[in-house]
Design goal:
43% helix, two-stranded parallel ribbon, single chain, 278 residues, alpha/beta, 17% strand, 9 strands
Length: 278
């Protein structure tokens, strides 16, 4: 092919910044870090890990662990703690982490080890190779699977995927395990809603990512802690979808009974806020 005509967006890279938003996840930081750098080293990647921590009872322990892992163990890991009042929430933490990342390709993953650190080189692979401007660790492609999910949760996940189909070709738009070049992020960074529920989907749509590649992953169910999927979150997802449809298909939303969907989503969003309480 015409290598000279390739944009900087599709350049090949071997350097990766991994962003992990945390809230009270001290127990997982050490195994996550050790397993992650073992995997990136084996894959021949230069990597850095950014722990984006929203202040919690576990913050002090998390900071101590990062100090030990970067000092004694020599891992390129750093932590940024947002104190109360500096902003909260997963999506804004991820976007801030992407802004702070020093390498040209960024990857987001969960801290709870549901996203296996060993899968990081594979998930980032299509972007690092210059073959995609967004890659997703997907539970819903051949080779991907969910360990320990109930039928009900599978049904909700499938419904969420179908609802997002007109917005993205991705088979797992609710995935929080994804990578993209910073150059692609810049295209729509200002338009991204930091309150958006699913930041991967938000970025895919707002940054107009054209070449989205799904990479099969095994999604491990949480060993400890509560599942994050609640009715309130389902409502927030619907409200986010309405905003993204409006962004992507403004005319259709006006002409088709799409505005009814928008109105319904606004009502659901208001209900979700009421459920959230103070």
């Amino acid at each position: 092919g015409n290598q000279g005509g390739r944009s900087a967006l599709m350049a090949k890279h071997t350097k990766l910044s991994i962003i992990v938003p945390t809230y009270d996840e001290a127990d997982n930081i050490e195994p996550l870090t050790e397993r992650l750098f073992k995997a990136t080293k084996a894959a021949g990647l230069t990597a850095e890990l950014l722990i984006m921590d929203d202040e919690s009872p576990g913050t002090a322990a998390t900071e101590e662990l990062v100090k030990k892992l970067s000092g004694e163990r020599g891992h390129p890991v750093r932590i940024h703690v947002r104190r109360r009042g500096e902003g909260r929430g997963l999506s804004s933490a991820v976007l801030l982490g992407f802004d702070m990342a020093k390498y040209p390709v960024v990857l987001c993953m969960d801290a709870d080890l549901q996203h296996e650190p060993e899968a990081v080189p594979a998930v980032a692979g299509p972007v690092l190779a210059g073959e995609a401007d967004f890659s997703v660790g997907s539970r819903n492609v051949a080779g991907g699977q969910v360990a320990g999910w109930t039928l009900g949760r599978r049904a909700i996940s499938l419904g969420a995927t179908v609802l997002a189909a007109p917005l993205t070709p991705c088979t797992d738009p609710m995935s929080g395990f994804f990578a993209l070049p910073k150059a692609a992020l810049e295209r729509g960074r200002a338009a991204c809603n930091p309150v958006g529920f699913k930041i991967g989907l938000e970025i895919m749509v707002k940054c107009k990512c054209q070449k989205v590649t799904d990479v099969p992953i095994t999604f491990r169910d949480r060993v400890a802690g509560e599942s994050k999927l609640s009715m309130k979150q389902n409502l927030l997802y619907l409200r986010q979808l309405a905003g993204l449809y409006w962004f992507r298909y403004p005319l259709a939303c006006l002409l088709v009974p799409g505005f009814l969907l928008l109105a319904a989503a606004a009502v659901l969003g208001a209900i979700a806020e009421q459920l959230a309480g103070p």
